[in-house]
Every structure is written in structure tokens, then in C-alpha cells.
Model the fold of this input.
Amino acid sequence: MAGLATSFGSGAMTNSINEILGAELLLLIGTNTTEAHPVIGYKMKQAVRGGAKLIVIDPRRTELAGEADYWLRLKPGTDIPLLNGLMHIIIKEDLYDKDFVAERTENFEALKETVGRYTPEYVSQLTGVPVEDLITVARLYAKTDKAMIFYTLGITEHVCGTSNVMSIANLAMLTGHVGRPHTGVNPLRGQNNVQGACDMGALPNVFTGYQRVTDPAARQKFEDAWGVSLPAENGLMIPEMFDAATAGKIKAMYILGENPVLTDPNANHIKSGLEKLEFLVVHELFLTETAAYADVILPAASFAETDGTFTNTERRVQRVRKAIDPLPGRTNWQTIMALSSRMGYPMNYRSAEEIFNEMASLTPSYAGITYGRIDKEGIQWPCPTLDHPGTPFLHAGSFTRGKGLFQGIEHIPPAEMPDKDYPFILSTGRILFHYNVTTPYSAGIKSMWSEEYAEVNPDDAARLGVATGDRVKVSSRRGELTTRVQVTDRVPPGIIWMSFHYAESPTNVLTSNAYDPVTKTGEYKVCAVRIEKLAG
Done:
């Protein structure tokens, strides 16, 4: 990704969470913040109570959509035309930030040519959003000084997820809403330490701090530090791993803290890959659906049983301290260290802090962070030196590549759309009570929301002859399941919505195996299904 988008190949917020309270406008696209990120969602509600304008772009009526000044209920998978339409209006009405565009960006004419084709009337036809709403929102965002954009998986979990992010970056640069407090492009990470895991190189194409494995200088630095020869090519993304396992090209896997049978798209394909492995190790807290396929299960330690750091969505590195000794007798890093030593590469770290210090010495964005400095309060990377205060917001003077690169991006439709055999769109997400995938393991949480309820619009429910509480079979070209129905206008006609928390109704047996070609993120937000009422 070029321009602004390169800065959060890491997926991190350009700005800080507390800046929400000083923002004049919050634009939310593809994020159900109060359920998926409740602390940040509460700050957004505080900002709105304090006078900030709220724009929500989402096919589903979320809690914040109900509180928004403007809710744009677009058709699933039409984010690019909607964003292009907003930029068309901003350029046509001469509302863009000419100084910012001239001084800090390039390729503006290519963007202008592309969005010139996305007239309000054409965009309304594609997205279902009224022309007058497009014009009002475009003017409001462009004219507001302190405007922040937030997005989550509703943007990235599409075959065009990378292009969606680039389109958001285009909009922010066009209006000069970046490089200042209370502005920016702010992706909210899916779980508490996803950011930290990515920062630590838990991706197949980078070392720590997003240093590319294909960069000879970066590779040499890590080879010298670790005393080994390292591959010069990128590894496999998760979907590629399971494709290779199904094809018999990958023989063994080690899965730590992940439950792909329940959480990854096209779950039957995942199961097929696991069944064809010759050896599977699952390192887990619970006997998950994935652990059921394991040859060996290693007991894991939770966050409460280990020392270390978490890095949150605003790039803030924070200490984590163990509350109890690890019940398995060792922490996860100690288990990995023992395995590595048995396999011929001795590791002799004595503490989590020692591991952190080695990482920081090899990672420019973490080089100025130590346990002592974050003992009481975290620091936001980049923090290149020991006297650096950290970075509350990015791109104050320039972008990572110098000038931000506009890109003309055309509409990319979803990989699978409804037809006569599968006439509904299925979209998926989280519910607040379960947050991620905790259902089978907590009686208290399960008592709050004990089973899946597929949301169905009243018009569709009437045609299907179903009412709230009725059981239905939901089928796609990949699998089927049974679930109960909740009749609600939170979803528009033609769309059903389900969470992915319940093993009894494993939604991801339905979802598509199509994915973004760059990030390999599955298209969880759009697939074609049919619904049939069950007797009794």
C-alpha cells in the first residue's frame, strides 16, 4: 500500500484514543464500535454528547448508527464507490485542501479522473444511499477541521479490503485530515494484542517492526543477531497454509492461541486441511474445536499467568504483569524456548524482559522503549531513542514514503452475490457479550446470550413464515447449519446477520473462501445463503 496506507500496513491508528474527545466529527465506516471495541465506543458517545458530529456508514443499524447525525445504509461491498462518490463531490465543489494536496501528495490527477466517474447519481444507484445524504456528508467531512475516520473488519474483510483501506486514505489526504491531532485514519484492531503480535513479526513477510524479510539489510541484521541463515522469500498467509495442507504440501502445524475451525472462513476447508496433516500441535488454554484435531495438546498460560507487554490499537506499548504463577508450570515463551532447544536451536532467555530488550535492539520503532520507561504508563511507537517521548499521532511533517500517493481505485464487487438458489447476503460480526470466541468456556458469559440468533428483516421473515425464536436452516455452497431467528429491522431486506461465537451454530461453515489478494483476509462480510424454516 502506498502513501498514507503504508504507514498502517501495521494496522495501527494514526492518532490516539483520547483524541476522540476533542474531535469535531467522527466518521465510522465498517465498525460496530460499541460492541467490538466497547471502551472506545464509550469515548465516542462521550464525544457526541460533547457536541461532536457522528457519521456512521454501515448496512446494519448498530447502536451508534441509531445515535448518528447521518447514517448511510449502504449495500454490502460498496464501500469503494461510496468513498469515491464523497471525493467526487468534494473535488467538484472545490472543498478539498489544496495546500495539503499540493505540498504533501502526488498523483492527484489520477484520483480526480477516477472519482470523476462516480457521480452522486451513479453512486446512489450502486450503494442505495440517497444523493442528498452523499452530498451532505461529503460537505460536512470536508469542511470540519478536526475530523477522524475509524474503521474495522467491515472494511478489511472483503476481497477488496486493501483497496477499501486505500480509498479511506485517499479521502483523508484529499481533505488534509491527517498529520494533526483529532484527525487521521484509525483502524481499530480486533483483539487486545493483535497489534503487538504483528509488531513482533507474527506475519510471514516481516520481522519485528515491519522490517521486510525480502530486504537484504534487514535480513542480515537478524541473521547476525540470531546466528542463523534466514529465508529470503515471504512465507504463507493463513489461507495459503490451509490450501497447502489440503494439497498435502504442508505436513505439520503448530497452532498457538488460535481456533481456526470456528473463526476462519469456509470452516469445512479448514477441517479438511487439519485432517490431512501428518502432525498437529495445538498450544491452548481450552480443548477448542481445533484442539480436537490435535495429535499433541500443550497447555498454555493466559495473560494473567505471565509477564510481558501488550501493544494496543493506538500503538501504545504497555506492561502486563502476572497475577498468578502459570498453572501449566511454565509460560508460553518458556514452552517455545524448550521446543526450540530440543530441535537444535538453543534458546536461553531468562525473562520476558530479556526477550523484549533483544527485540527492541533490532527494531527502530521500539528502540527507545524499556520496561523501566513503561513501568507506570505506556509509550506509543515509533519511539526511536531513550529520550524520545513516543508519538501520539503520525505523519506530522511527511509520510513514510515522503509524499502521500493518491490512487484511483475502481469498484470491486464481492466474490459471491445472491442468486435464485442462494437469495440472501450473509454478513457476520461480534456481539458484545461474547466479544470473541468464549462461549463454550464460560458459563457466566453463556448465560448472557446462550445461543445464536440470525437477524432477519421483518419483510423477509413474513415471506419465509418465521418469527423470532423459530429455528431455520441456513445453507451456502460450502455448508449448512441450524439456528434461531431474531426478526429485526437492524438488517435491511435481503440480508441476514450472524455472529461467529457458537460452536452449535458454526457460522464459518457458510462463509466464502474468497479473500483479499494482498492481505489474504477472508471475505466474511458478504456471501450468498438461503434460509429454510424448520418444523417444530
